[in-house]
Amino acid sequence: MSANTDLATGSNGYGYYVVNGNKLAFASQIGFSQTIPRNGDVIGILLDLEELTLTYFHNGHNLGTAFGKIPINQDAIKYYPAIACYEIGCSVSMIKTIT
User: How far apart (Å, rounded) are the C-alpha atoms in residues 55 and 48?
Assistant: First the structure.
């Protein structure tokens, strides 16, 4: 999830680095999960604007809340999902679900 075009240096960027299980925010990585996805796995993201949290899922299993106290300001911040691939042949399918 990113509110800034540069997740690595932005003040409002949040991410899950699936290569090593780290979470990324404010230009730093912190250990988050020991579950490393493989081909065909499903990664879910829940941005809860009532609780102000960002939670990740792996094949439906809750990995836990990665970030809390997410800043929101109805007029100033918009969040956009972002996915990056670093390998030839990588593919991603995005599915929007509402609970």
Answer: 8
According to DSSP, the residues that pair with 61 across neighbouring strands are 58
Given pLDDT bands bounded at 50, 70 and 90, which one contains residue 68?
very high
Of 24, 27, 65, the C-alpha closest to 45 is 65
Class level of CATH domain 1-92: mainly beta
The token pair that represents 34 in the structure block: 């020991």
pLDDT of res. 64: 92
pTM: 0.75
What is the domain partition of the chain in residue ranges?
1-92
Q: Cα(75)–Cα(3) distance, rounded to whole angstroms? A: 13
**12 vs 3, 67, 92, 99, CA distance in Å?**
5, 11, 24, 24
**CA pair distance 62, 73, nearest whole angstrom:** 27
**CA 29 to chain centroid:** 12
